[in-house]
Design brief:
- Two copies of one chain form a homodimer.
- By secondary structure, chain A is an alpha+beta fold.
- Chain A folds into two domains: 64 residues, Winged helix-like DNA-binding domain superfamily/Winged helix DNA-binding domain (Arc Repressor Mutant, subunit A, Orthogonal Bundle); 151 residues, Chorismate lyase (3-Layer(aba) Sandwich), CATH 3.40.1410.
- Chain A is built from six helices and nine strands.
- In chain A, strands 3-4-5-8-7-6 form a six-stranded antiparallel beta sheet.
- In chain A, strand 4 and strand 5 form a beta hairpin.
- Chain A is elongated.
- Chains A and B meet through strand 6, strand 7 and strand 9 of A and strand 6, strand 7 and strand 9 of B.
- Chain A binds a DNA duplex through helix 3.
DNA sequence: GAGTGGTCTAGACCACGAC
DNA sequence: TCGTGGTCTAGACCACTCT
C-alpha cells in the first residue's frame, strides 16, 4: 500500500501529518473502537518513517483520547466515555460512589431543530431532533432531572424504542445502537431555581435552588452529538476542580 | 561535577530519575524562577546520557508545570500562577474580562493553627497562622468576599504590612515578598447562603444564595501554602469544565 | 518464544531567537 | 552567525502479555 506522507499538509511536522492521516483512517472506520491498530514497526514500514516518528504521532493520538496504548498488548481505538456521570457534580450519598443510578425515561418527542441546534449539530435544513426527559434515581429517590436533545438522522435507531428499552447508561447505548462514540464534553454550570414541574419530578418544592449543568458532547471528529441539560438540588452540589 | 545518575532511585526509568533530580535542584534554588536552565547538550554531557533522555526528563517537568520551554530561547523555571483569579467562576460583567478587580484588606489577625491546618501546612506544634479577609471590587462594587489563611513562619514578611500596602494580586506578592511560588491549586465548589455579616460586606441581603469556593494552593514541592474561602453571588456563578 | 510498546543511544538536520 | 529547542533517523535492548 502506498501511504507515503506527501507534502500536501503544509505547516506541520511529519509526525503531525501522520497523526491526522491515521486519525482519518480511524474516523473512516478502518479500525473499529476496541480494535488493535497495526504495530509501530508495521506502521513505520508502511509509511516509510522511523519508529520514533510513529511514536510521536501516536502520542498525539493518545493526547486526543483517540487511542490507548498498553505495553505488551498493543494500541487500541478508544471506546469513548461511558459513565461520565453527572453525579460527579453532586454528592447524594456520602457512603457509596460506585453505584450506577436508575434511569426513567419520561417522554420522548420528535420536533424541528432550532436554528442554534442545526448549527451545533451541522444539520441540513428542516432536519429534526429527538428530545426526551429522564429522571435518575438513587435508592428509588429522584436526584437528577435531565433534558436530552439528539440530532436526526444520526440517532434514528432510538426512535422506535419503548421507554423501558433504554439503558441506564446512554453513552454505551449510543455506541451500540447508533455507532456514535462520545469522546469529550463541555459542561457549563450555573445556579437557578426549579419551576413547579421540575420540582414535582424531583420531589422538592417549587422554587427550590438548583444547579444547572448544560453539557455539549462531541464525538471523535469533534462533531457535537448531544445537548443535555441536567438539574439537581443545589444543596447536594459539590465540585472539585484542579487549577493548572 | 559528578552528577551521574546512580541506581538509588529504584523502580524508575533513567529519564524519570533525571526529572526528579533536576526538580530537586530547582527546589533547592539552584536556578531561580524565570532563570534559564542549562541547555540540553550541557545537561546530557553533565549526566552522561543521550540527548533524547534529557528531552524526556524535561517533558516530564513541563507536564508538572515546573519549567517552560521556548524554541530558540531556552528552558526556564516557571514563575507560577499569577492571576488565577476567582473571577473565572463568576460573571459579573459580560463586557470586559481583562479587568483586574480592586482589592480591600479588611482585617488581619494572628492565631494558633488548628489541628487540620497544622496537618495541611506541615507546621510544627504551636505554630501560628495569618488569617485575613478581603473584598474584591469591580467598578467600586463589591463582588467577592475572601477569607485567606497563610502559615507562619513562611509568610512572616507579610505581618508588618499596612492594609494599603497589599497588592491586588496576591500570588506575585507571595513570590516577591516571601519567595513562595504557587504552582497549582485545588478548588472545591459548593452552594450556600450568606450570613448577615457576609451579606453586608457584599451589599446583598442576609440569606442571599452564594457559591463557596474553597481553595487549597500548593507550591512547586506540592506543599500546601494557602487556604482560601471565597464567596460570591450564586446568580453570578458560571463555570465551564471540559470532560476528558 | 514471539510480539507488543517503553526506554535509550548517537548521531543529523531544521526552525527560531538573539546578537 | 551562533546557541537554543524541535524533528528525525536507524539502530539496540528492556518489560510486559499472551500462548
Amino acid at each position: 500500500m502506498d501511504h507515503t506522507i506527501t507534502g500536501t499538509l503544509l505547516g506541520q511536522s511529519r509526525y503531525g501529518k501522520l497523526a491526522t492521516v491515521i486519525k482519518d483512517r480511524i474516523l473512516h472506520g478502518e479500525w473499529q473502537p476496541g480494535q488493535m491498530l497495526p504495530s509501530e514497526t508495521a506502521l513505520s514500514e508502511e509509511y516509510g518513517v522511523a519508529l520514533g516518528t510513529i511514536r510521536q504521532a501516536m502520542s498525539l493520538l493518545v493526547q486526543d483520547g483517540i487511542v490507548q496504548r498498553l505495553q505488551g498488548k498493543g494500541t487500541f481505538v478508544t471506546r469513548g466515555l461511558n459513565g461520565a456521570s453527572m453525579l460527579r457534580f453532586f454528592r447524594f450519598n456520602p457512603a457509596d460512589d460506585v453505584v450506577t443510578p436508575q434511569s426513567n425515561i419520561l417522554q420522548t418527542r420528535l420536533r424541528e431543530a432550532s436554528a442554534e441546534e442545526r448549527l451545533l449539530f451541522k444539520q441540513a435544513e428542516k432536519q429534526k431532533v429527538l428530545q426526551f426527559e429522564r429522571i435518575r434515581l438513587l435508592n428509588d429517590e429522584p436526584c437528577l432531572l435531565e433534558t436530552i436533545i439528539l440530532p436526526l438522522p444520526l440517532f434514528g435507531p432510538l426512535l422506535d424504542l419503548e421507554p423501558h428499552e433504554w439503558d441506564a447508561l446512554l453513552y454505551p447505548m449510543y455506541r451500540n445502537r447508533c455507532g456514535v462514540i462520545v469522546n469529550h464534553a463541555q459542561d457549563r454550570l450555573s445556579f437557578s431555581h426549579l419551576n413547579s414541574i421540575q420540582a414535582r419530578r424531583l420531589k422538592l418544592n417549587s422554587g427550590h435552588p438548583c444547579v444547572v449543568v448544560e453539557r455539549k458532547a462531541y464525538d471523535l471528529s469533534n462533531q457535537c452529538i448531544e445537548i443535555r441539560t441536567t438539574r439537581g438540588d443545589a444543596y447536594s452540589f459539590t465540585y472539585t476542580a484542579h487549577v493548572k
